[in-house]
Amino acid sequence: MARFVLKTNINGEEREFLADERDSLLDALRERAGLMGAKEGCNNGNCGACAVVLDGRLVNSCCVMAAEVDNSEITTIEGLAEPDSLHPLQETFLENAALQCGICTPGFLMSAKALLDSNPNPTEHEIRWWLAGNLCRCTGYDKIIRAVQDAAERINS
Amino acid sequence: MVTTKKNADAIGTNGYRLIGTRPIRPDGTDKVTGRAAYAADTQMEGLLFARLLRSPHGHAKIKSIDASQALALDGVEAVLTAADFPGIEMSGNDRNGRPADNQWLQDNILASDKVLYHGHAVAAVAAKDPHIAEDALTLINVDYEVLTPVTDVREAMLDDAPILHPGMRTNVQASDVETDTERETNIAMHMRLERGDIKSGFDSADVVIEREFETSWYHQGYIEPHSATAFWNRDGKLTIWNSSQGPFVVRDATAKLLDIPIADITLIPQEIGGGFGGKIPMYLEPISALLSRKTGKPVRITMTREAVFQATGPTSATYNRIKIGAMRDGTIVAADAYLAYAAGAYPGSPVGAGVQCAFGPYYIENQRIDGYDVVTNGPKSAAYRAPGAPASEFAVEATINELSESLGIDSVELRLKNAIKEGNPNAAGVPMPRIGAEEVMEAVKNHPHYTSELQGDDVGRGVGFGFWHNAGLESGSTATINSDGSVSLIVGSVDIGGTRASLAMQLAETMGLSYEDIKPRVADTDSVPFTHVTGGSRTTFAGGWVAYELGIELREKMRERAANIWEVDLDEVEYSDDATITSKPDNEGNEREFTFVGLASKMASTGGQISATVSLNKTSQGAAYGGHIVDVHVDRDTGKVEILRYTAVQDVGTAIHPSYVEGQIQGGVAQGAGMALTEEYFYDDEGLLKNASFLDYRMPTTLDLPMIETEIVEVPNPGHPFGVRGVGEVPIVPPMPTIQQAVYDAIGIRLYDMPMSPRVVLEELLNEG
Predict the structure, then answer these.
(1) CATH architecture observed for domain B473-618
(2) Which residue in B has a C-alpha nearest to residue A131's C-alpha?
(3) Residues with Cβ < 8 Å from A153, sequence gap 6 or more?
(4) Same domain (yes/no): A14, A52
(5) From the CA atom positions of chain B, what is the Rg in Å?
(6) Do A16 and A42 lie in a common domain?
(7) Using a CB-CB distance cutoff of 8 angstroms, which residues of chain B are in contact with residue A143?
(8) pLDDT band at B6, cuts 50/70/90?
(9) Which pLDDT band holds residue B12 (cuts at 50, 70, 90)?
(10) Partner residues linked to B195 by β-bridges
(11) Helix boundaries (H) for B167-239
(12) Do the Cβ atoms of A106 and B34 come within 8 Å?
C-alpha cells in the first residue's frame, strides 16, 4: 500500500490530501477527501452515479485513477449550487419530482449540466442520448427528461 | 370517521385542501446537492472496511476454511466465518407468529456447511483500508467438495434432482392433494386454492385454451448496493447505520441471530438508494456487528455490484401453466393454474402471492390454483415489487388475450365482462370491498391511445391488466406541536420515494395546517414505535392512517387545553378546519378564540408541550388495479422491440401527491418493460452466473423508453380516511402481457418465455423464414 499526496482543485478550492495509489478518483473523493456526493453504483462505468466533471469533461469517476488527476480541476455535485441558491437543474428536478430514492440524482445532475453547458437547447432525443449512461431504477426517466427540458428553458430565458 | 373538507363520493375531484397538490419534498434539497447521507457514506473515527469472500461454485460442501494467512497480513484486524455466530436455538416464530428458520437466515448471511449458489458468502475480512481487505480475501483458503447444481425450477422438482437440503420434505398447505410427503425433495411447499368445480366448468366451456409460460430471474436493480456499518461498544450496546426497507425488522433479526436484547440495538436508518423489496432481507448487519465486536471499532461493509447480482435480490424464475375455459359470449367458466416458482437457495419464493393474484382482476366461479415453492441453486429470492404477481398474471393475461382472439371479442370487452366487482369473492374466498377494476378497464377502453389508429409496418398494440392486493401492517409515528405552531412529525418508515411529503400532507390536511408547518423526519428504532417495512405499497396508506389519527388526537388535545384555559366544558370548544380554536364569548362578551400559533405559544405555561404517539396495524389497504396500453415496433433485422408509446391507467384510491403517484407508475412500467424485453439471469451448467453487471444485466436506459403517459383513476378506498390505496406495486404487473400481445400484433408471433430479447425475437423470425 503506497500513499501519495494528491493536489487538485475541487469545486474551486485547492485541496491537498493523501490518497492510495490504487484509489480510483471516486475512492479518493469519497474516502480520502470526504466528498460523499458522487455515488458508487457499479464501480465499472455502467451506471453513471459517480459522474463528475474533470477538466471540463464529464467522466465516471470510478473509471479514472486518482493518480491521474494531480493538478486537475474537478467539479462534483457539491459544487453545483450557488451559496444562496440552487442550480436551475436542481430546482427543476425538485419541481418535477424527478427523483424518488435520489441515489442516481447526483450523477444525472452532473451529466445534465455537462449537456446543457455544451448544448443549451437539446431535443428530447439529444437529452435521452446524452443521459443513456446514467441508470435510474425508480422513475422510468420521464420526469428526469422533463426536468432537463425545463432547466434548459429556464437557463435560456 | 372525522375528515376535513372531504367529499367522500367524489371520484376524480377530491375536494381536499392539500391532498392532490404537488409540494416539494422535504428531503429534496439534500438529495439534489449531494448532502443526503446514504449508508455507504457513513464515516467515523477508526472506521474499518470489510469485504466478503464468496463462493466460486454453484453448489458445494465446505470442508475447511483456513484464514491464517489473511490474518497475518498487515492492516487486517479480523476474519469472520459462520463459526463466529453465537449458535442460537434455530427454530421459532417471527413477529407475526409464522415459523422462521433462523438457520437458513444465518446460512444465507455466511454459509456454514454448504454453499448453495455462486457468490454465497463464506467469510469476511475487516481491515484498516478497503484495498487491504480485498488483498486479504485472496489469502483465505477454502476447501470445497463441488456438487452438481440445479438451477432450473422444473429440473429441481424431478425425482433424481440434486438435493439442496438433505432431509427436506414437502410442506403441503391444502387438503385433497396427492403430493408425496415422504420423499426427500427440493419442493419446499405445495399450496392450492380451489373454488367451485373446475371439471364441470371446463365441460361446459365452448372454448378452452391451455398454455405454458416461463419467466427469468429478475433483479430489483436498485442503484445503491447494500451497505451496513456497525459499532459494538464495550457496554454491549450495538449501533447500526444501514440501507434497509425495514430498520425494525433488521434490528429484531439481528438481535435474534446475535442472541442479544432488542433494546441493546439502535438502528439508525440512512437514506436508501432504492429497494423494490430487495432491501427487506438482511445480508450484512450481523457480519458488521460481529466484526466490530472482535475489533472494538466501527466496521462498514458495502457490497460490490457483482455481489448484489450474485447474492441478493432476484425474484423467482417461474414455470407456469394456465388453462381457461369460456362460453361463446365471453363468460369465463373455469380456470386452472399450475405455478412453479424457484425460491433460490432457501424456501420462500413469492408463489403464495402468485397464487392469490393469478386471476385477481376477474371473478371466475370455478377455479383451482396450485403453487409450488422449489429450492434451486441461486440466491435466495427476495421480494420484488408485487412479489409473485407479474409472473402468474402474465401467464393469465396472455391466455386471455388469446381467448379474446379465439372468441372474436375485443380483449377489453372480454375483461369487462369478467371483471371482479365489489362483493365478489377473491381467490381466498373473501368478498372484495369497493374496488376500481371496472373503472380502470373502462378508462382504458375510452383512452385516446386505445382508440387511436396504429400506423406503420411491423408495429403492434397490446393491452393487459394487473392486480395487486397491497399490504397494511404496523406503522407508528409521533407528532409534537412546537411553541411557534410548527409540528415535528417523526416516522419509522424509511423514505424511498417521497413519503415524507405524502405523510406530512395527510397530517397537515387533518389538522388544517399548511404543508410547510409539518416537519417530517425519519427516526431511529429507539425513537418511534415499531414500523414495518417500506414495501407492499403500504407506507402512504398505513403511515397516512397514523398521520390522520395523530392529527385527530392533537386536535382533541388542543381543544382540551383551550377548555382548561377558558374554564369551559370540552364540548363547548371547537377546532375548525382552518385550525382556529373557538368557544362562545365569555360572560363579559369577549370573544374566545385562539389561532393555532396563539395556543401553541401558551403550551409551556398551561401544562406543557402537546404531543401524540400512534401505532396502528390496519388491514383495510384495498386492492389496486392497473390497465396498460403499448405500441411497439419490431425490427426484423435485429429482433429489437422498440416501445413507441406507453399508457398506464391505474386506480390509486386517492392520489395524495400526484407527481409521486405518476412517478411510481412510470417506474413500475420501466421495470416491467425490462422483464418483458431485456432483463434475465444467465447460469451456466456449473451454476455460475455469467452476467453479474449492469452492462450484461440489461436494464432499460433513457433510450429504451418513451415518455410514459399515466391516467390516474380515483376510486377512494373505503378503508382509509383519505381513500388511499397503495400505488407502487401494481404497475409492474401488466407490462409483460401487454408488450407480449403487442409483439404478436406486430409480427404474428406469440412468445411464451420472458424476456423477449432481441436474440429470441430474431431466432423466431428466422425460424418463421
Answers:
(1) 2-Layer Sandwich (3.30)
(2) B702
(3) none
(4) yes
(5) 28
(6) yes
(7) 659, 662-663, 666
(8) very low
(9) very low
(10) B367
(11) 198-204
(12) yes
Q: In the numeric block, which cell numbers belong to residue B67?
A: 484464514
Residues 130-149 of A with CB under 8 A from B: 131-146
Nearest to B38 among A103, A137, A145 (CB): A103
Cell of B357: 393474484
User: Distance between CA B592 and CA A156 in Å, rounded?
Assistant: 54
| Domain shared by A68 and A95, yes or no | no
Tens-digit pLDDT profile for residues B406-460: 999 999 999 999 999 999 998 888 899 999 999 999 999 999 999 999 999 999 9
The whole-number average pLDDT for the span B49-64 is 98
What pLDDT, on a 0 to 100 scale, did the predictor assign at position B511? 98
Answer whether B304 sits within 8 Å of A129, measured CB to CB.
no
Q: What is the mean pLDDT of residues B245-264?
A: 96
- A94 and A132, same structural domain? yes
Residue among B32, B38, B667 whose CB faces A140 most closely: B667
Total domains, chain A: 2
* B32, B132, B708: residue with CB nearest A86: B32
Q: What is the pLDDT of residue B101?
A: 83
Same-domain pairing of A114 and A135: yes
Residue A53 and residue A28 share a domain? yes
Indicate yes or no: CB of A44 within 8 angstroms of CB of B693: yes
Query: Which domain, by its residues, includes A38?
Result: 3-79
Q: Do A138 and B225 touch (CB under 8 A)?
A: no
This model of the complex carries an ipTM of 0.98
Last residue of a domain, one of A79, A111, A142: A79
- Provide the residue ranges of all domains of chain B, joining segments of one domain with +: 473-618
Q: What percent of chain A has pLDDT above 90?
A: 98
List the CATH number of the domain containing A74. Answer: 3.10.20.30
**B735 contacts B676 by C-beta, under 8 angstroms:** yes
Question: Which among B43, B498, B670 has CB closest to A140?
Answer: B670
Among residues A45, A79, A113, the one where a domain terminates is: A79
Cα within 13 Å of Cα(B56), Cβ side = 8
Closest by CA position to B728, among listed B646, B647, B672: B672
CATH code assigned at A125? 1.10.150.120
Given CB atoms, is A38 within the 8 Å cutoff of chain B?
A: yes
